[in-house]
Amino acid sequence: MSETHFGFQKVDESQKASRVRGVFDSVAGNYDVMNDLM
Questions:
Q1: DSSP state of 8
Q2: 7-37 pLDDT, tens digit each
Q3: Which of 7, 9, 11, 23 is deepest in the core (most CB within 10 A)?
Q4: Could you tell me the pLDDT band of residue 6, with boundaries at 50, 70 and 90?
């Protein structure tokens, strides 16, 4: 098992991509709204 950093946590490398995707999915809608307002 190989670990890598995700924020301030150490996670298994196999989990990192899904965690990054989760963060992206959680902010994408608000990011689009912000861009439209600018």
A1: T
A2: 999 999 999 999 999 999 999 888 888 888 8
A3: 11
A4: very high
Identify the domain containing residue 18 by its residue range: 14-38
pTM of structure:
0.69
Domain assignment present for 2: no
Task: Compute φ and ψ for 29, nearest 5 degrees.
Answer: -65, -45
What count of other Cβ atoms lies within 10 Å of the Cβ of residue 10?
A: 9
The secondary element (H helix, E strand) that includes residue 31 is helix 13-37
Domain count, the chain: 1
Three-state DSSP at 22 gives helix
